[in-house]
Amino acid sequence: MSRTRRTGRDMSQLLSDxxxxxxxxxxxxxxxxxxxxxHHAARRxxxxxxxxxxxxxxxxxPYRMTSDQAPVFWPFIAGPGLPPTGAQMGVDVLSGSAFYxxxxxxxLRDDIPVTNANVICMGKPGTGKSATTKAFCLRMVDxxxxxxxxxxxxxxxxxxxxxxxxxxxxLGPGMPARINPLGLGPLGEGWxxxxxxxxxSRAAIVFSRWLTLMRALIGSQRIGSERVPFxxxxxxxxxxxxxxxxxxxxxxxxxxxxxxxxxxHHLDQPTDSLIEQCRFRDRQHFFDDTRLLxxxxxxxxxxxxxxxFDDHTNIAVDWAAPIQSLxxxxxxxxxxxxxxxxxVCLNSWGRGMREIAAAGDLxxxxxxxxxxxxxxxxxxxxxxxxxxxxxxxxxGRGGDIQWANAHKPSDMLTVGxxxxxxxxIARDLMHLADIKILHGQKPGVANELxxxxxxxxxxxxxxxxxxxxxxxxxxxxxxxxxxxxxxxxHPLEETLTWTNEAIEGAA
Length: 507
Known about the structure:
alpha/beta, Rossmann fold, 2 domains, eleven-stranded mixed beta sheet
């Protein structure tokens, strides 16, 4: 016999007998379960076939540290990104985001540890060093920059010039182009309208640039294995001669432009006034003490570069053009020293063109094969050092991104014996550039860079492995920050930057 369970009337039924109906609410429907995105895996994995089961668990050691300590343990941890300004160069493979290069913009920001816009780009031939340089130049034109190639020994930038409708100037034996390293440049314009104080200040700039040039050129000459000395006595003689030739000693209202042959002739046949200004006892004393100086200048006039830098400038440079380049490929048969001397002359000439740059006149100055000029001696190294220190402009005028290319650090450090003044200055140049781009290198060269810059094992492994696997990969050192960047090129850019046609043609 089954029992029927009796139930009484609930509260709502009782109240309804007295005319009071309670509001009825719908019972909530059970919530649907969310889809499971992640499945927990045991420490030894799943025993299902193909699921990576391990017979024993991995000995994982946990470490706890702050965000400031983590980069020491693992230097390639994704750190603070750079602002998206300037040229988009490619991909920062550590963060997966686009990588932008804006050297002068970085200098102007307090949150980026960069104090100068100088760039040193190094890499084994064929690793994309030239392509990165050209891509940066091409893309920075869109941001108001102009490009100046101060000497192109291999005509690598010829296509880039033609792309902008500019024909490079060609220097070489038998070519019509002439450049006067002792030219006044823009500083010679409007001289008569200057006040006495302004004229004196401008003259000081001109003579300072000329003396820097003469130190480098004279110091490049050799007596056996030794360089021709250029001390205070030689400087006083050259300065006095330049003042005579330009009319500055006579108090002329406008300086007269001179040349290296005129300087040599003035020293080889000195006037009584010059001998007296230089405080020599007599003419013979002058000849005896200045013999090496005069012989060194004579070599510059009649040597391998005769006819290139010994006359007034006869080329008209359009400084408003997107790019200008000076080709030196015709000098290659003359040797590295001749190209080095040419680079020193062009450096002085280019500096003269920038001395009175307008505010906001921004340029990328590319120095290719700079080691050829540095090997001319300590004075040539000092000249380059001076240019790098003035990259931020003078008195708020202009501003340059000095971009220097080299294959390896030994290219720069062989300018003198270990511990010599030239070698020490060359070593400091590496630290004077706050931005370094390190493409693929052999292990020995990577170790040299590690010794100089304190990169660490992870950085050297990247240069010798990852960066060697594909053209355009490099470590970018922006101040104290490290970025692992792969440069990406548009197909049109590839046609402008590729430099291996000779190899392809021989294949």
